Amino acid sequence: MTVSLDSAAVAHYLAEHPRFFEEHAALLGEVKLSSTLTGKTVSLQERQMEVMRAKYKALELRMADLLRTATDNTVILNRFHAWHVALLKSAGGAAMARDLVDGLKEHLAVPQAALRLWNVKAEHTDTWFAADAGDARLFASSLRVPYCGPNKDFEAVRWLDGADAVRSTALLPLTANGATFGLLVLGSPDAERFSALMATDFLVQLGQSASAALAPLRA
């Protein structure tokens, strides 16, 4: 009596007996499959080589992507470090605000940057960074994480020189002891420079550093 086997049963048997083709090596040359590359009929060994080459190629691409990411991260880290060094060299006081903004442009290649602080010490009330922030104060207080994306005609973006040309922006709330005391605005004419798809981890750290540097200006 002949037992009929379906493909699933055959596949299960081969999975349960991984040494089958070692014991029946002659079958390797007889099993024919269709090549995904050429469409021609190839042996099982040739098909297996195609699969291995595809996996190797995928690994190569993945490795190249990881190397690019590592290189990009190294560049960002070096720039971030240079900005921190500039802050440490600042004379402090009102000069810190200017050094911080100029450092973002110089070391992090940010096209445009500006900030506003409120509730500052009496000696800083007439400085450029203590100018009236308007409704941007409420907006800054509502931010739990930095905003990163297209310029939606934000009031704060108007603090930037050439605000009409700004296509993308990052808005970073400045906080100390749980209270928001300022807003840092970054802008670019490149619509993709500050994309909504970007991770905000780096911006969060940048905002934390800026908050720590500017906190001494608070009343």
What does this entry look like structurally?
The chain folds into 2 domains: 22-76; 90-217, GAF domain (Beta-Lactamase), CATH 3.30.450.40. The chain has 6 helices and 6 strands. The chain has helices spanning 7-16, 20-23, 44-89, 94-107, 136-142, 201-214; strands at residues 32-34, 41-43, 112-117, 147-150, 168-176, 179-188. The strands form 2 sheets. The chain has a 4-stranded antiparallel beta sheet with strand order 3-6-5-4, with helices on both faces. The chain has a two-stranded antiparallel sheet with strand order 1-2. Helix 3 runs antiparallel to helix 4. It is rod-shaped, with a radius of gyration of 30 Å.
Feature tags:
4-stranded antiparallel sheet, alpha+beta, two-stranded antiparallel ribbon, 2 domains, Beta-Lactamase, 219 residues, single chain
Give a brief rundown of this model.
By secondary structure, the protein is an alpha+beta fold. It has helices at residues 7-16, 20-23, 44-89, 94-107, 136-142, 201-214, and strands spanning 32-34, 41-43, 112-117, 147-150, 168-176, 179-188. The longest helix has 46 residues, at 44-89.
